[in-house]
TrEMBL record:
The lineage of its organism: Bacteria, Pseudomonadati, Pseudomonadota, Gammaproteobacteria, Moraxellales. Keywords: Hydrolase, Iron, Metal-binding. This is Icc protein. Belongs to the cyclic nucleotide phosphodiesterase class-III family. The keyword Iron applies. One of its GO terms (molecular function) is hydrolase activity. It comes from Acinetobacter marinus. InterPro entries: Calcineurin-like_PHP, CNP_phosphodiesterase-III, Metallo-depent_PP-like. Residues 17-202 form the Calcineurin-like phosphoesterase domain.
Length: 271
């Protein structure tokens, strides 16, 4: 996290609505398939559905924007999301380990977002050349300081990797590796209401103390829940919405589009 970047402020006493998308896995060519589907067209269909069916004040992408982490893929993504004319934030995923990843440290892309009585903190859990996640020691120290600084706010944390096991044996080694330290930090601060992540390509909900841990569907392909080995699901792409209320409670829902954009390669064993 970069403390030199001032927090973005949304001063509002109404619910603040977030559109969470994740795991777009874009290719450099918009017509190139990934696991049998067209990831850019799938992302466009997800965003079109959200625009038509839900209200949102900002878009928050929880990582793996690109499958091919090259400038062309990130350009396609930014041009696509820009059309929605909403504030837009993102965190790095394990497939985004590349110098071409769009910077988070611009004035309009802060690591802290203040929305009424809520503080949203964006965390980097990406570790170079690793599928699994790790929040480095410096960032954990900064998180501790931010949670103290914003102790009078309700807090939502966003990162790519899941903190808790989602029930897929093959995914267990790929989750946040220092989750115990991360959870211990959260437990020292009673104001962390929710933690949202991506990475697992499926809906997940877990309650730990006062904090709710959530993941969302991918905008591209889905992983089969409760599978021992890598297995894709035939569920269509989707997204999560969150409504953050001034009193600290929140409402959330998962939404899916009507169909896949392409035919998922169900025989795929990895990617």
């Amino acid at each position: 996290m970069n403390q030199s970047v001032p927090p973005k402020r949304f001063d509002s006493q109404r619910p603040f609505h977030i559109l969470q998308i994740s795991d777009c896995h874009l290719m450099s060519d918009p017509n190139q398939t990934f696991a049998g589907i067209l990831p850019l067209k799938s992302l466009q269909a997800v965003l079109a559905h959200a625009t038509q069916h839900v209200a949102f004040d900002c878009i928050l992408n929880t990582g793996d924007i690109a499958q091919e982490p090259v400038p062309e893929a990130y350009h396609l993504y930014l041009e696509t999301v820009k059309q929605l004319k909403r504030p837009h934030y993102w965190v790095r995923g394990n497939h985004d380990e590349n110098q071409n990843f769009p910077s988070l440290n611009q004035d309009d892309h802060p690591n802290v977002i203040l929305a009424g009585n809520w503080c949203i903190i964006l965390l980097n859990s990406q570790e170079n050349h690793q599928v699994s996640g790790h929040i480095d020691g410096y960032d954990l120290e900064q998180l501790e300081q931010l949670l103290t600084k914003y102790q009078d706010f309700h807090v939502l944390l966003a990162l790519h990797h899941n903190t808790f096991d989602v029930g897929c044996a093959w995914l267990a080694p790929h989750q946040l590796q220092n989750s115990a330290q991360f959870v211990a930090c959260i437990e020292r601060h009673r104001n962390v209401r929710a933690v949202i992540s991506g990475h697992v390509h499926q809906e997940f909900h877990y309650q730990h103390g006062q904090t709710t841990f959530l993941s969302c569907p991918s905008t591209s392909i889905q992983f089969k829940p409760h599978s021992a080995e890598f297995r894709l699901d035939d569920l269509p792409p989707g997204y999560r919405t969150l409504a953050l209320y001034p009193d600290g409670h929140f409402e959330t829902a998962v939404h899916r589009i009507d169909a896949q954009i392409g035919a998922v390669d169900m025989e795929l064993k990895s990617y």
